Amino acid sequence: MWDRGRLVHEFDKGHTGRAESMCVLGDHLISVGRGVARTVRLWDLKLKEPFGELPSFDRTFSATCVLHPTTYLNKVIFGSESGELQLWNVNSRKLVY
Fold it and tell me: pLDDT band at 95, cuts 50/70/90?
């Protein structure tokens, strides 16, 4: 994690490989891992600790990006390689649409 060009923290309990995409949602960081698993990790930025992950996507959905629509409370959109989108509630950890 960087603050004005200065490294302030490294997250070491996350993905087995690199992160494909990241998004800040309030005091949380959401990261999508690269590779076959494409795990989605949830981080508490104040504590600098992981606090969970979203259930795995089905085999046909390979997430490559994540964003938070500004008017959607506790929700993020994941985009896939094929162009599909999924809307998830981060608090309940459930697929909305």
Answer: very high
Distance, CA of 19 to CA of 29 (rounded, Å): 12
Q: Do 76 and 67 touch, CB atoms closer than 8 A?
A: yes
- Out of 28-32, 34-38, 51-55, 75-79, the most confident range is 75-79
In angstroms and rounded to an integer, the radius of gyration of the C-alpha atoms of the chain is 13
Using an 8 Å Cβ cutoff, are 80 and 63 in contact?
yes
User: Amino acid letter at 17?
Assistant: G
Amino acid at 23: C
Residues 6+ apart with CB under 8 A from 5: none
The pTM assigned to this predicted structure is 0.78
